[in-house]
Amino acid sequence: MPFTEEEVNALNRQERAYPLAFFKAFAQDITVYEDDDIWVVDKPAGLLSVDGRTLKVSLLARLERVNPAVKLIHRLDMDTSGLLIFAKNAAAQSHISKQFIERLPQKSYQARVFGQWESIGATGKISVPVRYEPTTKPRHIVDHDWPKQALTLYEVLAHEMCNDQTVTRVLLKPVTGRSHQLRVHMVHAGHVMIGDPIYAEGAALMIAPRLNLHAQQLRLKHPTLGAWMDWESPCPF
Question: I want to staple 18 with a disulfide (CB 3.0 to 4.6 A). Which of 22, 66, 91, 134 is the partner?
């Protein structure tokens, strides 16, 4: 949910007051892998990837307090948790950014969606364009006339119960990287992600304390070694 101006100001003041030791401990807790070129971290849900227009509390800003040379490559939504890779120099940033442009990195997410969706083991794809809709900020929508395609591959992993409601655990692999793509594609499929503060309503929103979307796996080429590297983060829900 959006913060009030008073809440934003309080969070910003609190962030500025933290000592360097806080940011070092935070970075250590979320680090999955680090070397001279890259820094792979496990972003907690509820934290912006980069500073917003008013809220100056983000993953990038916190990492910069520990290493001012750290550089952004890609992002996760504030409500999403999981793997993010940062560069530690300009050459690594350029190399990995080009990989993302060429769609070389392989990303897998786990999500839980409301209701029972297909049979366990079912696979498929959702290929419909997604765009930002300014009249319902910050929502995005499916627009079949939009020229930029969005493609998600999926696999149904399990049917589960969550607070007496049936939910479906799915593996999602975005081929494209549109904003809110996975969330909107699940809405389009008729099964909104549970706990989603933007798209879910009623029971689908209330049965989970957070958006059930987690960036679980990441695979790409190391910018200097040239070898493919894989990282995985345990799903927290």
Answer: 22
